[in-house]
């Protein structure tokens, strides 16, 4: 038996009353890829932050290559040969690749010698691991996939033997993700140890040798990847049987509700984000917009929801909507029958410091039903909230709790309840299940399908292809502000959509 | 789950901060060779021991209530209005114009007119920084500070060159006519055999301030506008999502804030000086920031904090009068209170939160 590269023994960590990690022990053999899977909030990131020295464990020991090691800060982690690639890259956008790699690891006051030395080492690293990037390109000139390689190179330059990747594929297209996995396999061949944190079952099955499952701060199982199945892992994650597919009858699209013609959106920085798209959503159908984050889907939703101006034509039930100036704000959109579950519930959909009942009025606070004389009718609002909490099974069922004290899934249920219960003609849904536990995902998906079955039009934007496939009746793929094509879910597959998402045009839709 | 009970946040933290400030002040008084017990005694008797003392304490408190409410309303929209001082100065100009140039038959009508004029002038002075913030992104902290200086210079010009009566050497307006003098506490509460609040400046404006506290409370927590102001203050992107216009809320919140700061002038200009003098505000606009911080931007908190600062002002003046403690030290003590209750909030808060979490864990 070889000495494990990393061994954690009985790690516990609490944040106030929340036990984020509870008595966690794992052992990772050198030269393997070890997956850690779990839902959002299961404690994966906390565990890795402890390993990287961001948090100090309340209890437990860390052993690296057979020696007990204290990791009080990230400097110590780097010194023990641990490198971390974060979900959100920590790169300086207007520095070159080379400068980013040297940043924080300079040899002295003068920069030139460090850069020269780094350039030489980088060359060697690139050849050893087939990790090619142009060292003189600025970060903002290279794509997201390349940026991630720079992060990996940064870690390798600091002599990392153990590499931790936190949700590395969140921003990648399927083909970029495949490339990443090839790089990881190559690193493994060279004897590096890799820990891959993810909530995507597919990635675990494709890339790892062993996998540990976390649930509610505890390690529920560690198994060999070859000896398990996605279904089994999902059950271990959630603690009960789950439906990975949504049950729904075929759609019966009616008349067009939303018609978009030649829509263009220019953002605050003057960059054109949406470059002339046409799209129709009919009554009784769910149209899913697939695409890698940042290709104009957010801006499309924001124009429809009245959050930013656009140019072109948008008709709702045949009536053109104002796209800028008076009558184009969220209030006007709601009055016209558009409800909006925004992409970011914490920054947009909810006021995190408001009570649940105050949030149920958010966006609809000028509704006459909530008005009494000069004042807001808080009693009526609270009664309404109680109803919605019960119907949407929000837990804990307490209208007086502030939004931040609900879990991600229950926060989202509050938003979905507020928007769906308005019985809108068109429902805009952005990333409905981001950071939501699997149980709540099932529930929210069912609600969206139920609204469709009532003959409402639904426009769904999601970066999760699985979600797009299981909910949509029609799929449009966005890349660089254009719609690359429309497909029917049963006539396409992830591979074809992946190509469209990467901007490789298929035959005309 | 909340980190600690609400009462701890609202009551315990300010209380501990106050005690810390008091301890430090004690050390300072000891260091200059005075007796702290005697000093406290003097402050308490001077500010609270007689109706005369109360009359001053409540007079100062009235000023601080108006400016504290002004800062608090802006805080709810996450706007830091440092310009209360300038807005209150302009409010004074409004009061002077209303009282000097229109012959009012009775003080009550004059009071209504003075309220309207002071609010209008204060709001107008806040409107320019508000517009610059909302439309141009010029930071409200910078512009309101600059507007304090402009207000001071403007008032200087008005008093020296425009409103000063012919032949007077004093940069001040003429005295307001008898008919617009506001009832003081002395005239309101004294009986034939028992004169109270004699010579103290507290006047009917105090009740206007109380009313303002109630109105602001209702505005912030019971109206749709208040809802929008709070929502915008918590999250600008959220406000845009909900169809709340950031431009509109920024301007409205600042207009209300400026109006409240301007309203202070009915107390110090109309109620006390009965004419407009140079630097009539005496820094009350700045104290309002501390009052709002300590009062957690809640009108009831502002009320309590204003009384506390009124006590410190009046007690401090007494101290300077009767001991060798220099006037500057009073400012130091007041500054310590502001420092601990406002700026060093987290110093008390974080250990206290840990303590409560520990207690809760122990109980489980």
From TrEMBL, chain A:
Residues 6-241, 258-505 form the ABC transporter domain. It is found in: Cell membrane. One of its GO terms (cellular component) is plasma membrane. InterPro entries: AAA+_ATPase, ABC_carbohydrate_import_ATPase, ABC_transporter-like_ATP-bd, ABC_transporter-like_CS, P-loop_NTPase. It is a peripheral membrane protein. Pfam families: ABC_tran. Keywords: ATP-binding, Cell membrane, Membrane, Nucleotide-binding, Repeat, Sugar transport, Translocase, Transport. Belongs to the ABC transporter superfamily. This is Heme ABC transporter ATP-binding protein.
UniProtKB/TrEMBL annotation, chain B:
It is a multi-pass membrane protein. Pfam families: BPD_transp_2. One of its GO terms (molecular function) is transmembrane transporter activity. It comes from Ruegeria profundi. The chain crosses the membrane at residues 12-33, 53-75, 87-104, 110-128, 140-160, 204-221, 249-270, 302-323, 329-348. InterPro entries: ABC_transp_permease. Keywords: Cell membrane, Membrane, Transmembrane, Transmembrane helix. Its main location: membrane. This is Sugar ABC transporter permease. One of its GO terms (cellular component) is plasma membrane. It is found in: Cell membrane.
């Amino acid at each position: 038996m070889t000495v494990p590269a990393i061994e954690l023994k009985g790690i516990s960590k609490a944040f106030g009353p929340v036990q984020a990690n509870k008595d966690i022990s794992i052992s990772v053999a050198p030269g393997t890829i070890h997956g850690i899977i779990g839902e959002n909030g299961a404690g994966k990131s906390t565990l890795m932050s402890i390993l990287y020295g961001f948090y100090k464990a309340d209890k437990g020991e860390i052993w690296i290559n057979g020696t007990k090691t204290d990791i009080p800060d990230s400097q110590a982690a780097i010194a023990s040969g641990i490198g971390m690639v974060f979900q959100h890259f920590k790169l300086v956008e207007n520095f070159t690749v080379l400068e980013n790699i040297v940043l924080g690891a300079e040899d002295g006051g003068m920069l030139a010698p460090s850069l020269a030395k780094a350039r030489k080492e980088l060359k060697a690293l690139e050849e050893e691991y087939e990790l090619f990037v142009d060292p003189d390109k600025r970060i903002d000139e290279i794509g997201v996939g390349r940026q991630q390689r720079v992060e990996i190179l940064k870690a390798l330059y600091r002599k990392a033997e153990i590499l931790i990747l936190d949700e590395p594929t969140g921003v990648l297209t399927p083909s970029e993700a495949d490339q990443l996995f090839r790089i990881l396999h190559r690193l493994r061949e060279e004897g590096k140890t890799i820990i891959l944190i993810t909530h995507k079952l597919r990635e675990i099955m494709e890339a790892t040798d062993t996998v540990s499952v976390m649930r509610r701060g505890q390690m529920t199982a560690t198994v060999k990847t070859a000896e398990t199945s996605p279904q089994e892992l999902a059950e271990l994650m959630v603690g009960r049987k789950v439906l990975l597919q949504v049950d729904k009858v075929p759609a019966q699209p009616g008349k067009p509700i939303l018609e978009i013609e030649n829509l263009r959106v220019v953002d605050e920085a003057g960059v054109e984000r949406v470059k002339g798209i046409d799209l129709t959503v009919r009554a009784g159908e769910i149209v899913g917009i697939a695409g890698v984050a940042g290709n104009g889907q957010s801006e499309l939703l924001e124009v429809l929801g009245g959050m930013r101006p656009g140019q072109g034509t948008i008709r709702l039930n045949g009536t053109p909507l104002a796209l800028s100036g008076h009558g184009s704000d969220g209030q006007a959109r709601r009055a016209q029958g558009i409800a909006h579950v925004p992409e970011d519930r914490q920054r947009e959909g909810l006021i995190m410091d408001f009570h649940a009942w105050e949030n149920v009025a958010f966006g609809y606070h000028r509704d006459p039903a909530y008005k009494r004389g000069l004042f807001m009718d808080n009693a009526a609002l609270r009664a309404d909230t109680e109803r919605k909490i019960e119907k949407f099974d929000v837990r804990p069922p307490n209208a007086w709790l502030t939004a931040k004290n609900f879990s991600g899934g229950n926060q989202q249920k509050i938003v979905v309840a507020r928007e769906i219960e308005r019985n809108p003609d068109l429902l805009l849904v952005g990333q409905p299940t981001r950071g939501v536990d699997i149980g709540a995902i099932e529930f929210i998906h069912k609600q969206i399908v139920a609204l469709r079955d009532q003959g409402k039009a639904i426009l769904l934007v999601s970066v999760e292809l699985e979600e797009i496939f299981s909910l949509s009746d029609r799929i449009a793929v966005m890349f660089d502000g254009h719609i690359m094509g429309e497909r029917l879910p049963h006539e396409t597959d992830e591979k074809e959509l992946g190509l469209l998402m990467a901007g490789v045009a298929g035959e005309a839709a | 789950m909340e980190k600690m009970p609400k009462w701890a946040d609202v009551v315990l933290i300010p209380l501990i901060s106050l005690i810390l400030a008091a301890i430090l002040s004690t050390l300072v008084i000891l260091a200059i060779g005075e007796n702290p017990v005697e000093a406290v005694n003097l402050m308490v008797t001077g500010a609270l021991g007689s109706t005369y003392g109360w009359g001053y304490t409540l007079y100062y408190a009235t000023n601080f209530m108006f400016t504290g409410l002004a800062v608090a309303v802006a805080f709810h929209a996450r706007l830091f209005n440092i310009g209360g001082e300038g807005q209150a100065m302009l409010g004074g100009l409004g009061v002077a114009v209303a009282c000097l140039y229109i012959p009012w038959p009775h003080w009550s009508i004059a009071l209504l007119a003075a309220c309207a004029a002071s609010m209008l002038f204060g709001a107008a002075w806040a409107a320019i920084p508000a517009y610059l913030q909302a439309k141009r992104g010029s930071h409200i902290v910078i512009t309101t500070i600059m507007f304090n200086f402009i207000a001071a210079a403007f008032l200087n010009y008005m008093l020296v060159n425009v409103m000063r009566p012919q032949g007077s050497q004093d940069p001040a307006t003429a005295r307001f006519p008898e008919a617009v003098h506001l009832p003081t506490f002395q005239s309101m509460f004294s009986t034939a055999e028992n004169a109270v609040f004699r010579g103290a400046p507290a006047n009917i404006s105090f009740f206007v301030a109380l009313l303002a506290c109630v109105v602001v409370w209702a505005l912030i927590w019971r109206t749709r506008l208040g809802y929008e102001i709070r929502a915008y203050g918590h999250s600008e992107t959220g406000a845009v999502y909900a169809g709340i216009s950031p431009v509109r809320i920024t301007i409205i919140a600042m207009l209300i804030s400026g109006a409240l700061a301007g309203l202070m002038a009915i107390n110090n200009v109309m109620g006390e000086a009965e004419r407009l003098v140079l630097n009539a505000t005496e820094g009350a606009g700045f104290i309002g920031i501390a009052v709002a911080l300590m009062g957690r931007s809640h009108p009831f908190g502002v009320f309590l904090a204003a009384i506390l600062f009124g006590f410190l002002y009046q007690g401090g003046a007494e101290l300077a009068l009767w001991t060798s403690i220099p006037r500057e030290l009073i400012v130091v003590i007041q500054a310590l209170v502001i420092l601990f209750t406002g700026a060093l909030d987290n110093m008390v808060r974080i250990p206290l939160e840990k303590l409560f979490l520990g207690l809760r864990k122990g109980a489980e």
